[in-house]
Amino acid sequence: MDYVVAAPPQPSLPVAGAQARFPVRRIYCVGRNYLAHIREFGNDEKALPFFFAKAAHAVVPVAEGSVGEIHYPPATSDYHWETEMVVAIARGGHRIPAAGALNHVYGYGVGLDMTRRDLQNAAKKEGKPWDMGKGFDRSAPIGDLVPASAF
Predict the structure, then answer these.
(1) For position 151, what pLDDT does the model report?
(2) What is each CA distance from 62 to 14, 59, 97, 135, 140, in whole angstroms?
(3) Handedness of CA 38, 98, 14, 56 (dihedral sign)
(4) Residues 25 and 59 sit within 8 Å (Cβ to Cβ)
(5) Alpha helices in 22-92 (DSSP H)
(6) CA pair distance 143, 66, nearest whole angstrom
(7) pLDDT digits (tens, 9 = 90+) for 42-74
(8) Tens digit of pLDDT for each residue in 92-132?
(9) Element (H or E) spanning 119, and its range?
């Protein structure tokens, strides 16, 4: 296909022990699902967790077995990280029964959710989206994925 501007490269993640990589289409994150973190920020412990997203370009590009570079991002003076469990989804679906949900999982990994906390907090106060605080370039370093079949 021809494009009027160059298409960006396909973000992908290394897979442990494999030459092929896992393509990243988008990143869904779960917020307020960890009790200690909820308490740390004084949020309602009884409120349900919620979802937010990061674009695929948030992935830190790395080669298998290497470490990607993360630089202190611009426009912030309060940069945080949280360790996250990564679940790589192999195929989509709609209204998937709980009993079949794991059939959609390719594998698992460990990642970081990098946050420009000052920008996130300012957006929260104004009732605006967190995109500038959460969804910036290289805000989702993720290590090698391990296929679910290996568990």
Answers:
(1) 84
(2) 7, 9, 34, 18, 11
(3) negative
(4) no
(5) 35-40
(6) 9
(7) 889 999 998 999 999 999 977 666 777 889 999
(8) 999 999 999 999 999 999 999 999 999 999 999 999 999 99
(9) helix 117-125
Task: Evaluate whether 33 touches 52 at the Cβ level (below 8 Å).
Answer: no
Percent of the chain with pLDDT over 70: 97
Contact 59, 142 (CB under 8 A): yes
- Quickly count: other Cβ atoms within 10 Å of residue 22's Cβ: 20
The predicted model scores a pTM of 0.89
How large is the greatest C-alpha to C-alpha distance in the chain, in angstroms? Answer: 51
Tokens 């993640």, located at residue: 13
Structure tokens given for 24: 């990243």
For tokens 């992935």, name the residue: 59
Q: What pLDDT is attached to residue 63?
A: 64
Token pair of 141 as six digits? 């370093």
Backbone angles phi, psi at 131, to 5 degrees: -45, -45
3-state SS assignment for residue 99: helix
The single residue listed with the structure tokens 């200690």 is: 36
